Write a sequence for this structure.
């Protein structure tokens, strides 16, 4: 019974820690003028402290390391903490003064290379792949997820809300695995708690933003949990849970590439940004995304309970409807 209650306790503890730490950060960042000032590409209208990711990532990694020290999760999590800490440090420097895309990409490649060591051995359909191609494909996908997560952190509550939804789905499905179910549940619980603790301050109108110091490492650690699930042969769940973020960012990038735009520069062309621009509002967009995420969690459950192809098709249809709604400002 105690083991079943442990993930809830971890989520509550991490949430309280993140909530307190974020509240303490706001006056510090404002006093040091670490602010996100509005510009023509912004979706906010007043200068807002940037750097709340320090509290989010700090809370998650601290709780994960405590769980490791207590023997409840595998030693591999130390590699993920190292990679996440590296990305947080590089991203914080980027938040303060700006770094070249090349430097950021090298840091991401290093963190992903470190993280590959902590992934579980592939099972099922992935087991037949030779090791180098599989790891190269996983690494490329992981780096893309890290960057698209940063791209999608453009309005109040969206990145934190999506993190809570993905983490909630991972926590719900932790029991389907073999061997390390309890560890997977504890890792997901820490992620959910931190996201909700931060969301209290980040819901529209936001009193603080994640900054790259939050969005980049969040993409990294959530990507690790999703790839770990896929490696355990639950790839349909790993695909369905983040499907909205994957679709919005990837479609937008392809459109910009076709128009020969400089894809590394900030813009306001994502579906969620267009919805805000058309007057839907930050909270309205996030509420619609979270509603779709709940449906996607249902599709993920159906995909692993005998409805594989139909569940995948339903998930694609849900995301397509959401993108259409956001693109038209419904």
């Amino acid at each position: 019974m105690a083991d079943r209650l442990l993930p809830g306790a971890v989520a509550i503890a991490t949430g309280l820690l993140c909530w307190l730490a974020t509240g303490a950060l706001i006056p510090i960042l404002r006093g040091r003028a670490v602010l996100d000032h509005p510009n023509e590409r912004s979706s906010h209208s007043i200068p807002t402290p940037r750097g709340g990711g320090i509290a989010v990532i700090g809370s998650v990694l601290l709780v994960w390391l405590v769980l490791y020290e207590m023997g409840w999760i595998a030693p591999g999590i130390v590699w993920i903490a190292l990679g996440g800490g590296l990305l947080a440090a590089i991203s914080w420097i980027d938040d303060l003064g700006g770094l070249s895309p090349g430097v950021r990409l090298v840091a991401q490649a290093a963190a992903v290379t470190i993280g590959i060591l902590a992934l579980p051995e592939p099972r099922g359909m992935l087991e037949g792949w030779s090791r180098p191609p599989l790891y190269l494909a996983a690494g490329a996908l992981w780096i893309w997820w890290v960057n698209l997560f940063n791209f999608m952190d453009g309005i109040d509550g969206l990145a934190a809300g999506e993190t809570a939804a993905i983490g909630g789905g991972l926590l719900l499905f932790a029991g389907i695995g073999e061997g390390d179910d309890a560890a997977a549940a504890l890792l997901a619980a820490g992620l959910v708690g931190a996201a909700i603790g931060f969301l209290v301050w980040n819901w529209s109108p936001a009193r603080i933003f994640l900054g790259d110091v939050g969005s980049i490492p969040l993409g990294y650690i959530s990507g690790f949990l999703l790839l770990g699930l896929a490696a355990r042969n639950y790839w349909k769940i790993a695909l369905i849970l983040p499907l909205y973020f994957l679709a919005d960012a990837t479609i937008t990038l392809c459109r910009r590439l076709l128009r020969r735009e400089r894809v590394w520069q900030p813009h306001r062309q994502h579906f969620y940004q267009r919805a805000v621009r058309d007057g839907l509002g930050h909270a309205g967009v996030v509420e619609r995304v979270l509603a779709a995420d709940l449906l996607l969690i249902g599709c993920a459950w159906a995909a692993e309970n005998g409805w594989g192809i139909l569940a995948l098709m339903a998930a694609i249809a849900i995301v397509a409807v959401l993108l259409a709604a956001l693109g038209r400002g419904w």
Q: What stands out?
A: Residues 140 and 263 are 18 Å apart (CA to CA). The radius of gyration is 19 Å.
